[in-house]
């Protein structure tokens, strides 16, 4: 996932309800889909961050020693400045980049 290419807002904004529920015709269904996508994005970001921070991990038994690593701080700051997963999910939804299907319709 390339987080730099998504132009989601960092701050809270108000969305037009009609644009959000336009693809499904139901605001609750749209919010449910966006919520699930936000969970997926959050999992991806967390996994990516943990992998990057593992590179800086030092394993020693001394609790008194604290190492400051500037690269580690920069990585952490980058992830702190990213838009929140729900903002990314809403932006993907409005850009029609989220695939969804209603399984109730598929069964019939």
From TrEMBL:
Keywords: DNA-directed RNA polymerase, Transcription. One of its GO terms (biological process) is DNA-templated transcription. This is RNA polymerase Rpb6. It holds the Pfam family RNA_pol_Rpb6. It comes from Formosa agariphila (strain DSM 15362 / KCTC 12365 / LMG 23005 / KMM 3901 / M-2Alg 35-1). One of its GO terms (cellular component) is DNA-directed RNA polymerase complex. GO terms for molecular function: DNA binding; DNA-directed RNA polymerase activity. The keyword Transcription applies. InterPro entries: Pol_omega/Rpo6/RPB6. The keyword Transcription applies.
């Amino acid at each position: 996932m390339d987080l730099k290419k998504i132009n989601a807002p960092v701050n809270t904004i108000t969305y037009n309800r009609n644009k959000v529920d336009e693809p499904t015709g139901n605001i609750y269904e749209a919010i449910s889909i966006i919520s699930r996508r936000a969970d997926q994005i959050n999992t991806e970001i967390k996994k990516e961050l943990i992998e990057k921070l593992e590179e800086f991990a030092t394993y020693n038994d001394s609790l008194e020693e604290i190492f400051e690593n500037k690269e580690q701080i920069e990585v952490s700051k980058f992830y702190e400045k990213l838009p929140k997963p729900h903002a990314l999910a809403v932006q993907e939804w409005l850009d029609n980049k989220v695939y969804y299907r209603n399984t109730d319709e598929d069964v019939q």
